[in-house]
Design goal:
Layout (H helix, E strand, L loop, with lengths): L1 H27 L10 E7 L10 E4 L2 E12 L2 E8 L10 E6 L6 E6 L12 E2 L1 E3 L4 H15 L10
Parallel strand pairs: 1-7, 2-6, 5-8
Antiparallel strand pairs: 1-4, 2-3, 3-4, 5-6
């Protein structure tokens, strides 16, 4: 009789733990298991470096959706976004890939436009800005410094 009570307690504890983990994964991980909200739009970038499915989409610092896919379309990266139904995006809005902090994770920032027309579901954001390529900029800076540096005098100083 005592073994039955113990196994029931352990089973209840495991059930509560599993339900708690499910809740945490869906709420804190921003996973929408019910797929009850949102519409999809696309944006093409010359580079989508660091952006991946699950990355956030923000307008004015507020998360309004997430990246659902990043794939190659010809020579450009096509990014698919799922936005909340209550967030209209003007057809002249600018989509840019940003990072949180200097080396932080990437997210997509939408800067609203001034148009009266909105991007329809399944539509495309026309204006995009690819992420800043810091290693490329540093390499270009070093190369330009080496070209403009005066030749050093190889005569030893006594």
């Amino acid at each position: 009789m005592r073994t039955l009570g113990l196994s029931t307690s352990v089973g209840g504890f495991l059930l509560v733990g599993a339900l708690s983990l499910t809740y945490l994964f869906t709420r804190l991980g921003e996973v929408d298991l019910q797929r009850r909200w949102g519409y999809t739009v696309h944006a093409d970038f010359t580079s989508a470096s660091g952006l991946e499915p699950g990355s956030g989409v923000e307008i004015a610092g507020v998360q309004v959706g997430q990246v659902t896919a990043v794939h190659l379309d010809g020579r450009r990266a096509r990014v698919t976004l799922k936005l909340r139904d209550d967030v209209p995006v003007q057809d002249d809005a600018i989509a840019s890939i940003q990072s949180k902090g200097l080396l932080g994770e990437r997210y997509l920032l939408i800067t609203p436009g001034g148009s009266d027309e909105n991007v329809p579901p399944g539509g495309k954001l026309r204006e995009t800005e690819s992420p800043l390529d810091l290693p490329g900029l540093m390499a270009a800076y070093i190369a330009s410094r080496n070209k403009t540096a005066p030749p050093s005098d190889s005569t030893p100083i006594p």
